[in-house]
């Protein structure tokens, strides 16, 4: 970057980074959080071009990971693979995926003069800001994981987002590599429209099909002509094997045989996260032995199938922030032999203020197995009402406990968890941060 920046610009960049690092030190020293957003916000005011000036210093390029679900886990897996290969990585590991969070992650790895010496930048990005950050980031690889309904008070339907993605991605250099989910009709179609190199990932394991298409589906219509798609089977929500009987559009061919790869963590959704990261790692020339070794030794990101021990009880936190994700975490719970579950529903800005999505969740499957369900969070009574309706339909032997105070709810759930079982906690995003603070004594953000 050296000769490309004028002296005045270099000084401004150095000042912005130095101030941001000072803010980080103060915030962390006072125990106010991880300082994953504020430093970038302040630095941006000093140097508005900060994102471009830092990202263009990354030696081998930026890897951008976007989608509704799975960004944090996929980013962490790919980061772990590349680190095991010996690369230096800049990564927004706390999941702060808006512009200020991206800037903070790059600042963290820069020196006080604004010089960045890393091989790759792995940045998970909120799906709604992808069009805003692609130009300054100029990513080498874009991973498109999935598109589901999420926070409809802030975002539009998935078709709106995919059209914006297609428009801006198509303007990037032809050397850009795009890796979409072949099993998502919207993203499969997106990949088929792009002039860049496109590699698809997806499942080819019919034995993993769901018995029926879930209630919470978003894209069962052809993105090309609008006709209803014919599904041979679905793996998760609307992700599956499909064709359009009207225009002939069909699922793209994945570059990997999914059955040949094991997966990280629990839940079929983590098989998708695994396949996405593996596809990117192979494109970067990483040794397959290193990839498989990393998968075998992978540890969960905070709140994403994270296992903890608290008061000698096993606890598993499964982030549940939208219909599709919650249905999948419910599937994990119902496939276990554990009898106690804690659901925590908040409606703050990081969660989305519209909680009507809980009525698209298949809570009946959780209720019909019985056991103990503890409910808490800002919208505790909304969730309790949803479960009561499910209980009326199933007439199950369910012990439903309502606790407004989260700490009390956690204590109650632990009391009802036998010593040989695991307490599953299904929180929305801000609730997950609160749960972890109670269980670990540490804030994330």
Automatic annotation (TrEMBL):
Alphabetized Gene3D superfamilies for the sequence:
Mur-like, catalytic domain
The annotated active site, in chain numbering, is 354
Q: Which residues form the Mur ligase central domain?
A: 65-280
Catalytic activity of the protein? beta-D-GlcNAc-(1->4)-Mur2Ac(oyl-L-Ala-gamma-D-O-P-Glu-L-Lys-D-Ala-D-Ala)-di-trans,octa-cis-undecaprenyl diphosphate + NH4(+) = beta-D-GlcNAc-(1->4)-Mur2Ac(oyl-L-Ala-D-isoglutaminyl-L-Lys-D-Ala-D-Ala)-di-trans,octa-cis-undecaprenyl diphosphate + phosphate + H(+); beta-D-GlcNAc-(1->4)-Mur2Ac(oyl-L-Ala-gamma-D-Glu-L-Lys-D-Ala-D-Ala)-di-trans,octa-cis-undecaprenyl diphosphate + L-glutamine + ATP + H2O = beta-D-GlcNAc-(1->4)-Mur2Ac(oyl-L-Ala-D-isoglutaminyl-L-Lys-D-Ala-D-Ala)-di-trans,octa-cis-undecaprenyl diphosphate + L-glutamate + ADP + phosphate + H(+); beta-D-GlcNAc-(1->4)-Mur2Ac(oyl-L-Ala-gamma-D-Glu-L-Lys-D-Ala-D-Ala)-di-trans,octa-cis-undecaprenyl diphosphate + ATP = beta-D-GlcNAc-(1->4)-Mur2Ac(oyl-L-Ala-gamma-D-O-P-Glu-L-Lys-D-Ala-D-Ala)-di-trans,octa-cis-undecaprenyl diphosphate + ADP
Q: Does the keyword Cell wall biogenesis/degradation apply?
A: yes
UniProt cross-references to SUPFAM superfamilies, sorted A to Z: MurD-like peptide ligases, catalytic domain
The residues listed in the UniProt record as binding Zn(2+), with positions renumbered to this chain, are 222, 225, 244, 247
- Name the PROSITE patterns on file: FOLYLPOLYGLU_SYNT_1
Q: What class of enzyme is it?
A: ligase
Alphabetical UniProt keywords: ATP-binding, Cell shape, Cell wall biogenesis/degradation, Ligase, Metal-binding, Nucleotide-binding, Peptidoglycan synthesis, Zinc
Cite the Lipid II isoglutaminyl synthase (glutamine-hydrolyzing) subunit MurT C-terminal domain residue spans from the record: 319-432
InterPro entries registered for this protein in UniProt:
Folylpolyglutamate_synth_CS, Lipid_II_synth_MurT, Mur-like_cat_sf, Mur_ligase_cen, MurT_C
Q: In which pathway does it act?
A: Cell wall biogenesis; peptidoglycan biosynthesis
> From the UniProt record, which GO molecular function terms apply?
ATP binding; carbon-nitrogen ligase activity on lipid II; tetrahydrofolylpolyglutamate synthase activity; zinc ion binding
Signal sequence interval, chain numbering: none
- Which Enzyme Commission number(s) are listed? 6.3.5.13
Swiss-Prot/TrEMBL GO biological process terms: cell wall organization; peptidoglycan biosynthetic process; regulation of cell shape
Can you tell me which family this protein belongs to? Belongs to the MurCDEF family. MurT subfamily.
Its biological purpose: The lipid II isoglutaminyl synthase complex catalyzes the formation of alpha-D-isoglutamine in the cell wall lipid II stem peptide. The MurT subunit catalyzes the ATP-dependent amidation of D-glutamate residue of lipid II, converting it to an isoglutamine residue.
Report quaternary structure and partners. Forms a heterodimer with GatD.
- Which PANTHER family does the UniProt entry name for this protein? LIPID II ISOGLUTAMINYL SYNTHASE (GLUTAMINE-HYDROLYZING) SUBUNIT MURT (PTHR23135:SF7), MUR LIGASE FAMILY MEMBER (PTHR23135)
Q: Which HAMAP family match?
A: Lipid_II_synth_MurT (MF_02214)
- Protein name stated in the entry: Lipid II isoglutaminyl synthase (glutamine-hydrolyzing) subunit MurT
Q: Which organism is it from?
A: Anabaenopsis elenkinii CCIBt3563
């Amino acid at each position: 970057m050296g000769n490309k920046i004028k002296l005045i610009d270099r000084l401004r960049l150095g000042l912005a980074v130095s101030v941001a690092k000072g803010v980080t030190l103060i915030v962390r020293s006072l125990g106010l959080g991880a300082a994953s957003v504020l430093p970038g916000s302040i630095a941006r005011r000093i140097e508005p071009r900060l994102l471009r000036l830092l990202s263009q210093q990354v030696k081998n390029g930026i890897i951008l990971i976007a989608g509704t679900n799975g960004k944090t886990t996929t980013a962490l897996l790919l980061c772990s693979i590349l680190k095991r290969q010996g690369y230096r990585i800049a990564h927004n590991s706390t999941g702060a995926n808006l512009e200020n969070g991206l800037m903070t992650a790059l600042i963290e790895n820069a020196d006080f003069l604004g010089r960045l010496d890393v091989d790759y930048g792995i940045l998970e990005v909120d799906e709604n800001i992808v069009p805003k950050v692609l130009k300054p980031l100029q990513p080498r690889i874009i991973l498109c994981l999935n598109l589901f309904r999420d926070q409809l008070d802030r975002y539009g339907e998935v078709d709106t987002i995919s059209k914006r993605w297609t428009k801006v991605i198509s303007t990037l250099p032809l050397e850009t590599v795009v890796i979409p989910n072949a099993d998502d009709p919207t993203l499969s179609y997106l990949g088929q429209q792009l002039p860049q190199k496109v590699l698809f990932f997806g499942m080819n394991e019919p034995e993993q099909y769901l018995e029926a298409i879930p209630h919470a589906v978003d894209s069962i219509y052809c993105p090309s002509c609008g006709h209803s798609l014919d599904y041979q089977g679905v793996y998760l929500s609307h992700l599956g094997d499909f064709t359009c009987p009207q225009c002939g559009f069909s699922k793209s061919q994945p570059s990997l045989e999914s059955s040949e790869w094991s997966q990280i963590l629990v839940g079929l959704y983590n098989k998708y996260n695994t396949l996405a990261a593996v596809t990117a790692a192979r494109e970067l020339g990483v040794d397959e032995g290193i990839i498989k070794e990393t998968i075998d030794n992978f540890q969960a990101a905070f709140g994403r199938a994270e296992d903890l021990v608290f008061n000698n009880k096993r606890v598993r936190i499964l982030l549940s922030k939208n219909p599709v994700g919650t249905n999948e975490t419910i599937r994990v719970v119902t496939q276990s032999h554990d009898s106690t579950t804690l659901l925590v529903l908040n409606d703050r800005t990081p969660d989305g203020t519209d909680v009507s999505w809980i009525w698209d969740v298949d809570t009946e499957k959780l209720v019909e197995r019985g056991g103990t369900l503890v409910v808490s969070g800002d919208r505790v009574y909304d969730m309790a009402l949803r479960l009561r309706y499910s209980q009326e339909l199933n007439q199950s032997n369910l012990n439903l406990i309502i606790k407004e105070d989260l700490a009390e709810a956690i204590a109650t759930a632990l009391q009802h968890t036998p010593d040989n079982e695991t307490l599953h906690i299904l929180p929305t995003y801000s609730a997950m941060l609160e749960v972890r603070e109670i269980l670990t004594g540490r804030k994330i953000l």
